[in-house]
Design a protein that fits this description.
The protein is α+β, with helices and mostly antiparallel strands. It has a domain at about 105-150 and about 325-355: Outer membrane efflux proteins (OEP) (Single Sheet), CATH 2.20.200.10. The protein is about 60% helix and about 10% strand. Strands 2-3-5-6 form a four-stranded antiparallel sheet, with no helix packed on it. A two-stranded parallel ribbon has the order 1-4. α4 (about 80-100) packs antiparallel against α6 and α6 (about 155-220) runs antiparallel to α7. The longest helix has about 70 residues, at about 365-430. It is elongated. The protein starts with a helix and ends in a 33-residue tail after the last helix. The model is unreliable at about 1-20 and about 480-504 (pLDDT under 50).
Length: about 500
């Protein structure tokens, strides 16, 4: 497209007078959110001994070793180190963008010594001139300065891109820290759950072994059938086969924990070897509203800052419609005689330059760049909205899992009590001669199966609590909506729909 000359002149005058930044100004998109989470009430009604502060939620599990490992992971994890390095890179890019708005100055000094051949055509001509000297020297010293005035804001929009990218990298580093803390706690809880199940499986094997011994003795005396002995043998092998699988899972979990801590697998295995109970899941001191989760979850901050960067890139592309003005100046001295006369008045030189660059016949490419930038913004907007939906889904799923798993623990606890009473009754009947030891051992086996199921459910309760803390963005001090600190503009107040965000 080619604008009318009067329109171009008017735009030029307005740009010179106002120094505006072309392109759409960014405004946070509107997200429709409910006032509370669907499962929030059920979670708040949980009867728990401890409640966790979201900032350091892992300490509420009341497990010193868990707290120690999370602290070590936050110090030593290599994913966190990579995220911190990305922040350094983004900060450097921002400084580069900031410097682009400022004048640049440079100093250049040169000294030359030349010797002209008389065999070349030029040398033959010069040699024919009286007083020709084949040797020559030249000296020059200059101080130069340049500045792109950025009347239409292309550089400022580029600065906005760099700043949004830097803020996204900072939020990404926080998200990595939260993920590592949650993964460390999750793996630790898994280790304790597997250790409990291995202990229960060992008791199960011992019970089945006693059962087999009893049936074998009865078979040898002709009291029991061979089928009963074969069934007892099969039951024992089933119990024994569970242990290697659980032990392999325990090895995998311990190795995963070492990697999260940034050390070689096996480093902390001895410290984890003593069996300890599965940590009890604490309550949530505060769950917050969905809008508060938007401000707290760093992954949503990352998505929102990427959207802001995409919006600023539209302005960078639009600025190519307009002319670019630059100012340059040079002050120095140059001479072809002895260096002692370099700074003489006759050797001084000065220049002043007003530069203009305008893509008059390239607007088709500019149109394409703007269209691409708008497409990238639409993609970033969809990604942000999807991230919000995923975040609320994470919270709801975690709340549901926490409540339902705790209900499962309650049911299994009642079942365990029932099997424990059945075992006591069978033992009393055995002592009274009413039943054989087989019934007692069978009751033992059922009781241990119930305990194994309960240990699994307790482990899942703790893991669900960890998932809830992570989904709520726990693990860092989120800024208030009114704060001037980073990410304070993520409030859902004073927001506009995408259709209202148009170019100037």
């Amino acid at each position: 497209m080619i604008a009318h000359p009067r329109s171009l002149a008017l735009l030029l005058n307005v740009g010179i007078l106002t120094g505006c930044a072309v392109g759409p100004d960014y405004r946070t998109p509107e997200i429709a959110l409910s006032s509370t989470f669907f499962g929030q009430e059920s979670v708040n009604q949980r009867l728990v001994q401890h409640k966790a502060d979201l900032t350091v939620w892992w300490s509420a599990f009341d497990d010193p070793l868990l707290t120690r490992f999370v602290s070590l992971a936050l110090e030593q994890n290599l994913d966190i180190a990579q995220a911190a390095a990305r922040v350094v890179q983004s900060r450097a890019s921002l400084r580069h963008a900031d410097a682009g708005l400022l004048p640049a100055a440079n100093v250049s000094i040169s000294a030359e010594r030349g010797y002209q051949s008389v065999e070349t055509p030029l040398g033959q001509v010069l040699n024919a001139m009286p007083g020709f000297d084949r040797s020559g020297s030249a000296y020059e010293a200059n101080l130069g300065a340049s500045w792109e005035t950025d009347l239409f804001g292309g550089l400022r929009r580029g600065q906005e891109v760099a700043r949004a990218a830097y803020e996204a990298s900072e939020a990404g580093a926080v998200a990595t820290r939260l993920a590592v803390a949650a993964q460390t706690a999750d793996v630790y809880v898994t280790i304790r759950g597997l250790q409990a199940r291995i202990a229960i499986a060992g008791q199960q094997v011992e019970t089945r072994r006693q059962l087999l011994a009893m049936v074998t003795l009865q078979y040898e005396k002709g009291i029991a059938a061979e089928l009963q002995m074969n069934q007892a043998e099969g039951s024992l092998t089933q119990a024994e086969a569970q242990i290697p699988v659980l032990e392999a899972g325990l090895d995998t979990a311990m190795n995963a924990l070492d990697v999260l801590l940034g050390v070689q697998p096996g480093t902390y295995r001895r410290e984890l070897a003593p069996v300890a109970p599965v940590p009890v899941a604490p309550g949530l001191a505060e769950t917050g509203t969905p809008a508060e989760v938007l401000r707290r979850r760093p992954d949503l901050i990352v998505a929102e800052r990427r959207l802001a960067a995409a919006n600023a890139r539209i302005g960078v592309a639009v600025s190519e419609y307009y002319p670019k003005f630059s100012l340059a100046a040079l002050l120095g001295s140059a001479t072809a005689i002895a260096s002692g006369n370099l700074f003489a008045g006759a050797a001084s030189q000065a220049q002043g330059i007003l530069g203009l660059r305008w893509r008059l016949f390239d607007f088709g490419r500019v149109d394409a760049q703007i269209a691409a930038a708008r497409g990238q913004e639409a993609e970033a907007l969809a990604a942000y909205r999807m991230a919000v939906l995923r975040a609320t889904e994470d919270v709801e799923n975690a709340f549901s899992a926490l409540v339902k798993r705790e209900a499962q623990v309650g049911v299994l606890t009642r079942g365990e009590l029932s099997f424990a009473r059945a075992r006591e009754n069978s033992l009393a009947a055995y002592q009274g001669g009413g039943v054989s030891l087989i019934e007692v051992l069978d009751a033992d086996g059922k009781l241990l199966q119930a305990r194994d199921a309960k240990a699994q459910a307790q482990t899942e309760v703790a893991r669900a609590a960890i998932a809830a803390f992570r989904a709520l963005g726990g693990g860092w001090e989120a800024p208030n909506a009114s704060s001037n600190r980073l990410y304070s503009d993520l409030s859902t107040n004073d927001i506009a729909t995408p259709d209202s965000r148009k170019a100037k």
